[in-house]
Amino acid sequence: MSAAESVPRPASSRARQDLAAAELLAAHGFSAQAVEAAARSALGAAQLALAALDESRDHPSDVVSAYVRRVVRERAMDPDTGRRLRSLLNRAELAARTRAETPAAESTDALADARAVLDAVEQWLADPARSAPGTVESTRHRVRPLPRRRASET
């Protein structure tokens, strides 16, 4: 690993800071807030991956959708990261909206998922063959038009 690769990118360091904040919240008994911070960290990593492909999304569900489509399916990212990211988003929304106390185990799981997503994105970004924009063709198939019906067939 070269010296340039060992220096974290500013957006990546922000995602790492969010993850550290989530760890502090979990350690002090704020499980719901820890789940939300862990999801914010993973979403930041996903946005970083999308930015490497010259794409951006603002709404969290749009970030997850674009990440799964562009990074996981089209750019050979581990599909588990897409599942973890979607799960984190769902758990964060549930933690934010429910009045019930979020169990400590939930925050521990959320931290592990966010860490896995962030680590995978950083490894993916370090490999220019996979993360460089415009180097890989889309995996979508061309759609064939439906055959036209003649007026006599209707």
- Helical element count? 7
Cα separation of the termini:
66 Å
- The total of beta strands comes to 0
**Class by alpha and beta content:** mainly alpha
The H-and-E topology, N to C, reads as HHHHHHH
Q: What features would you describe in this structure?
A:
- The chain is mainly α.
- 69% of the residues lie in helices and 0% in strands.
- The protein is built from 7 helices and no strands.
- The chain has helices at 3-6, 10-27, 31-52, 60-75, 79-97, 104-126, 128-131.
- Helix 2 (10-27) runs antiparallel to helix 6.
- The chain is flat, with a radius of gyration of 19 Å.
In short:
This protein is an all-alpha fold. 69% of the residues lie in helices and 0% in strands. The chain has helices at 3-6, 10-27, 31-52, 60-75, 79-97, 104-126, 128-131.
Task: List key phrases describing it.
154 residues; mainly alpha; 7 helices
List the helices and strands and how they pair.
Elements: H1 3-6, H2 10-27, H3 31-52, H4 60-75, H5 79-97, H6 104-126, H7 128-131
